[in-house]
TrEMBL record:
Name of the molecule in the record: Pyrroloquinoline-quinone synthase
Annotated GO biological process: pyrroloquinoline quinone biosynthetic process
Thiaminase-2/PQQC domain sequence ranges: 14-221
Organism per entry: Rugosimonospora africana
Alphabetical list of PANTHER family matching this protein: 4-AMINOBENZOATE SYNTHASE (PTHR40279:SF3), PQQC-LIKE PROTEIN (PTHR40279)
Keywords: Oxidoreductase, PQQ biosynthesis
Family: Belongs to the PqqC family.
Xref: Gene3D superfamilies: Heme oxygenase-like
Length: 229
């Protein structure tokens, strides 16, 4: 049996998946270069809504599978962040505001008429993964948050520079999420490193993060392809 990676080696292996994150997808590259149409932006926002809507369920699944009350209490904050404490609040409320800022009626997001088959398949697969795998494996999959703050900062800059038709109040989700995700990423990384102590667990965690990168990439594949038909 192979020896476990040291904490430093394990951390480096997780961070080493940075190249698989979706910021390097051709769709995002075009968006950040100012080459996206309003239809491209709206299609991304409408499809990403489906992902956003499932995040609280994903986090609830991780809690349901975790036997440690301290971890459950800490992870519960993620559900509150996305769902808010009442309707129209939290990340979901901010995403509806983003939809309005790019010209999407709230009804269009809520009834999911624009959600592509590829997006639905990828997100449903991720949710099933988190419901059926050990909690620490699902937590490792969530470590795409290691890579997202810089990407969200770049998105805000690119959208303000290239897409002045997007109403400024639509940026609220990203502005609130950046500091929160940095804190979450640090906590989750420490959690995964502490609990994945065997080589098998470590390799499973690395594979889980790779899987999550593929989920995000598959969403963009569908969104990108739909714009080329």
């Amino acid at each position: 049996m192979e020896q476990p990676l040291t904490p430093a080696e394990f951390t480096a292996a997780l961070r080493g998946l940075r190249h698989r994150y979706w910021d390097r997808h051709p769709f995002h590259v075009r968006v950040h270069a100012g080459e996206a149409s309003p239809e491209d932006i709206r299609r991304w926002v409408a499809n990403r809504w489906y992902y956003q809507r499932c995040l609280a369920q994903k986090n609830a699944a991780i809690i349901a599978n975790c036997p440690d009350p301290e971890i459950r209490r800490r992870w519960l904050e993620r559900i509150s962040f996305h769902d808010g404490h009442s309707g129209g609040e939290g990340g979901l409320g901010d995403w509806l505001a983003l939809g309005a800022a790019v010209g999407l009626d709230e009804t269009e997001l809520l009834d999911e008429r624009h959600v592509l088959r590829g997006t639905r398949f990828a997100v449903d697969g991720y949710l099933t993964f988190c419901r059926t795998r050990p909690w620490w494996e699902s937590a490792a999959a969530a470590l795409t948050e290691l890579f997202s703050p810089e990407h969200m900062s770049d998105r805000i800059h690119a959208w303000r520079e290239h897409y002045d038709w997007i109403k400024p109040d639509g940026m609220a989700y990203f502005e609130k999420r950046i500091p929160q995700v940095r804190e979450d990423a640090s906590y989750t990384l420490g959690l995964v490193v502490r609990h994945c102590v065997t080589r098998e667990q470590q390799e499973t965690a690395i594979a889980a993060l790779a899987f999550k990168c593929d989920v995000l990439g598959a969403m963009l594949d569908a969104i990108d392809y739909a714009g080329q038909r």
